[in-house]
Amino acid sequence: MVITDPRQPDNPIVIANQAFLDLTGYEADEVVGRNCRFLQGPDTDTTAVEKLRRGLDAGREHVSAELLNYRKDGSSLWNELAISPVMGESGELIYYFASQRDATETRRIKQLEAAERLLLMEIDHRAINALAIVKSIVRLSQAETVADLSASLQGRIEALARAHRLLAGTGWIGGDLETLLAEEIPGAFACRVSGSGPSVMLPSACVQPLALVLHEMMANAAQHGALSRSDGEVIVQWKEAGRQLLLDWQENGAIGLRSAPEPRFGLRMLLGLVEQQMNGSVAMTGSDQGLRIGISLPLHHRTDDGPMNGGAR
Known about the structure:
The chain has eight helices and twelve strands. By secondary structure, the chain is of the alpha+beta class. The protein has two domains: 2-102, 2-Layer Sandwich (Beta-Lactamase); 108-311, Heat Shock Protein 90 (2-Layer Sandwich). Strand 9 and strand 10 (244-252) form a beta hairpin. Helix 4 (104-140) packs antiparallel against helix 5 and helix 7 (204-223) runs antiparallel to helix 8 (267-277). The chain is rod-shaped, with a radius of gyration of 33 Å.
């Protein structure tokens, strides 16, 4: 605690106890006779200081604030400051009594708690979004046998998990397109699938839906398309045009759209993911010699990570 004398010029400290000296690192002769503002520094909030001054000028019985102050050695501390006027017998102001408490650790704990709350909210949001996508996958997946259904669901959920790991590795700021594609190429077909294009960092909300799209197109190519034939190949190219990502998927040796069985992923799901989840567009062309899918995605789309709206329109 300190006591200051407002009757003297600049309201100097006239008494400072040992706890104040220990807190600030000063000796008594370095403190007495000085205004308390010497504890302020470059990052002290002047708004809080002005709030204290206005409260004292208004004659309030008690004013308080939390200020960033500085010790003699230059280190900072958060000072929980409370000031009360001391009135004489005739009602005149004779002293100010001020108490200080080191609130540095308390403030640090509060900041950690606030950060933890934000982290838990973010984890909750991502978990809900992932579950919503899984729910949509389960509802829209179809197969002739339970075993086929189980295998397709497992493959799709594993694609989501790979995308999740990719996002975690970047701190959830996004994912590299080339890495995402490489994750979805089955090892048995690595020599027959090629990808080329500039380095593209996908927005985080785009990574998991696009991972599913690539996984399903790759699975369809392996079962029904180019990769189901010994001489077939898949060529994936991409580029940026303005703020759009243009993805060109070409299968050479594919059966083609007109005669091939419907892709396992289904056109409705593909359109739902690209158009509704990622605000993009899809164009498909095919013949007996090959299949071509063009996907256009905005690189500035919304980031609300909303569920798939059933994957169909």
